[in-house]
Amino acid sequence: MANLPSGTVTFLFTDIEQSTRLLDTLGERYQQVLADHHRLLRSAFEAHDGYEVDTQGDSFFVAFASARQALAGAIDAQRALAAHAWPGERPLRVRMGLHTGEGEAFDESYVGMDIHRAARISAVAHGGQIVLSDGTRSLVEPSLPPGATLCDLGYHRLKDLPEDEHLHQVTINGLPSTFPPLGSLSRPSNLPAMPTGFVGRTRELAAVEEALARPEVRVLTLTGAGGSGKTRLALEAAARSSGRFRGGCFFVPLAPVRDPVVVASTIAEVLELREVGDQQALELLKSHLRDRHALLVLDNFEQVHEAGPLLAELLAAAPQLHVVVTSRSPLHIYGEHEMPVPPMSLPRANADAASIGSSEAVELFVERARAVMPAFELTADNALAIADIVARIDGLPLAIELAASRVRLLSPQELAGRLGSRLRVLTGGASDLPDRQRTLRAAIDWSYQLLDADEQALFRRLSCFVGGCTLETAAAVTDPEGELPFDMLDGIASLVDKSLLWRQQDANGATRFRMLETLREYAREQLEARGEAAEVSRRHACHHRALAERAREALDAGDMSELDRFDQEHDNLLTALEWAVNTDDPDGGEVALGLVSATGWYWYTRGHTQVAALCLERALERGASAPALARAKPLYWFGAILDRRGDLERAREAMQASVELWREVGDTGRLATALNGLAAVAENQGDFVFATATYEESLAGYREAEDDHGVATVLCGLGTVASSQGDPGKAEHLLTESLRLFIEAGDGWSIAVVEADLAWVVLEAGRPDEAAALVRDATRRFREWGEQSYLAACLELHAAITAPARPQDAARLFGAAHALREAVGASLAERERLQLERHLAPARQQLADAFADGFEAGAAAPLEDVLDGVL
Q: What does residue 711 show for φ and ψ, rounded to 5 degrees?
């Protein structure tokens, strides 16, 4: 062995993937496997002058004086491992990582950050994969070994390393080249975890990944019939390409959306952005994404096709944004790259049983059949029948999965016979639909016909749910009288087993059941054909109105967890409202008004202002002839939402109308609430005289109704008006009394709001310690509820408090608050900005140019770390 290489050295780390499981499986045979592994790797590394620095268990650490020698050794090692006859069914899979850097020798080994970097690169690779750092890539790319190419994997966060690493994969002819995403630290993302593995689509997946790596491909549209696997392909490609997008990868499901107007706000919701003032959703998205290298996956775009120009405008404003769209037709916007998603590859005609298994369609059938029958295998007896099945349904993934789910009941031979006869008589769909889509319709119909009559009824009725449902909700809407002859759990389980429903768990671990959109559309057609749609839709709407009203009552009682319930049921609430505003049912107007009344506070709190404004306006139009009692509350929420959006004139009109209706009804308590809302709008307009008078009238009403919570709300409003008018003593007195009443009521949300308002007042009075205690408690509460616009205000308060004594901390906190406001689209009012700058002035003077450095550090810091620091 040569001496320890020095100077610029290429470090190679290797280890066996899942070695512990392999040891459990092989038992005593594992010793021979390990010996063969060591022999093959040592031979390959020594042939290229590798120096074996250390070997522990199944891991090698080898140093090379040349990057090209290191790569050649790694490639030869992978080829030797693949060619060797290993015990068991699969070859030994070894991950390898290479990085070139300074070799700081120490006691026959090396020390330094480059050693850690090489080890971290190896750790994120998968068995059979060779991953290089960008430094190593630059040295080996000009003269790669024969049969080797490089694939750019993008930038990745590695544990304990301060900077993202640009990584590359070595692809070797004749060896596997497709691997799961690297196991690097996660970036901002909401890509859903798939319940099943990705099968086939090798060419299509490579094409999508290649397109996403090209800067000029800004929008890639995957087109194809329903059930052709567009969504699954898009998600897999996004997951594998996630390292390229430092700004994160985000999945935006548009299946529940029917109105192109709300596409922008739907995307904003996924990105957890909040609309503030008069900032429209599209402008908020432009601001947030302008400098971010991010990827959006927009799914089921065909039903909001008119939103194509909106997407084009967003892409123009955000030059580093990339978008993958799934749609049944192209968008026809400038710069669009269309990629049709074909069916999966089928066995060639007259193929023998031995070669049938190489077809992607057959591979998917077998994989999904094993999900319901683990012992299922492709055999000489069933291969031809499986080939017949996948050919008759044109290799469409959804149809294959539906067919495969039946192997628990029927053999492939029996399935082929039933499927064949069914498709000969069912062409399905309109005559102008593509053949594959008509075939899919027939395949779904075949699966539907295999259900018994009661399962069919349940399947049809479940189509009323958009965004899924709980078991309890399913029973209440689909079978309120208990007419179906099975327990609802058994009925749901049967449909899950047949791949007609998906079981999912929400963030709180609760189980929900969802239907694929293609299946839901088919089930809805069946529901309408049976004349059942009107009654089921009515039950769905009335149930969700009642559910929303119960959730709102719990929110009023201080149970903020009910916000999660609204999150889960939002799509169903919008669907219920759609029925209510369009139905000829005489109760439609009342149901619509009841829905928006119950949902208004949720919309306001979560910042869904564009959707809320549209829904409230439509409900008020539908219920124009409803009694005053039904219209007064929706008008109040319409005013509150318009106020938050900055449409102050219309907000004041709506609030005034609500006040007049409550006067007409004679409900003193509700009138006081409407007056408080009207006063708040006037305060935002700067009409402090009218605001004060209206607050006072509201206060009198609350006191007459003996509503201490309402009294506390108005005192808070009067306190902020006093502060705006330059009377800090009066402001502190009013806010302190408001806080006392909210504490007695146990209303945590309102406590936090008043604490934040009061903290500014006592800080201005020269009591920073008291202000700090108030804002710490407010921060803790808002963090718990995920209310980010208030969190930004709290961080600004922390910055103002710390500025005199800890200017560097103040700069960082100000930077973190600014970044958070930018992310959620929350702007500072001019009065608030001047107040904050006045308190930050000492920090700016002490730090001079260093203030900007602290600001940038805070803006780049993870929000959770910043919050941990202030708490």
A: -60, -45
Query: Considering 424, 448, 472, which residue would you say is the last residue of a domain?
Result: 448
State whether 357 and 329 are in the same domain.
no
Are 475 and 363 in the same domain? no
Q: Please check whether residue 102 lies inside any domain of the structure.
A: yes
SS (H, E, C) 496-527: HHCCCCEEEECCCCCEEEECCHHHHHHHHHHH
Concatenate the DSSP letters of all residues of 435-488 into one string: HHHHHHHHHHHHHHHTS-HHHHHHHHHGGG-SS-B-HHHHHHHH-TT--SSS-H
Count structural domains, the chain: 6
pLDDT of 567 reads 86
Q: Is the pLDDT at 120 greater than 80, yes or no?
A: yes
Indicate whether 260 and 358 sit together in one domain: no
pLDDT at 307 > cutoff 60 = yes
pLDDT digits 0-9 by tens, 132-141: 999 999 999 9
Of the two residues 604 and 43, the one the predictor is more confident about is: 43
User: Residue 47 — very low, low, confident or very high, per pLDDT cuts 50/70/90?
Assistant: very high
Instruction: Tell me how far apart the alpha carbons of residues 543 and 354 are, in angstroms, rounded to a whole number.
Output: 55
Q: What sign for the dihedral angle of Cα 73, 74, 79, 84? A: positive
Q: Do both 520 and 542 map to the same domain?
A: no
Q: What is the DSSP annotation of 638-651?
A: HHHHHHHHT-HHHH
Residue 12's beta-bridge partner residues? 62, 98
CB-count burial class (<10 Å; 0-12, 13-18, 19+) for 541: buried
CATH number of the domain bearing residue 41: 3.30.70.1230
- Same-domain status, 164 and 35: yes
Confidence at residue 420, expressed as pLDDT on a 0 to 100 scale: 54
**Three-class HEC string of 313-363:** HHHHHCCCCEEEEEECCCCCCCCEEEEECCCCCCCCCCCCHHHHCCCHHHH
pLDDT of 217-259, one tens digit each?
999 999 887 778 888 999 999 988 887 888 889 999 988 888 8
State both tokens at 466. 């958009």
Alpha carbon distance 619, 581 (integer Å) = 6
Is residue 163 pLDDT above 70, yes or no? yes
Cβ(631)–Cβ(620) below 8 Å: yes
Supply the range of the domain harboring residue 485: 451-531
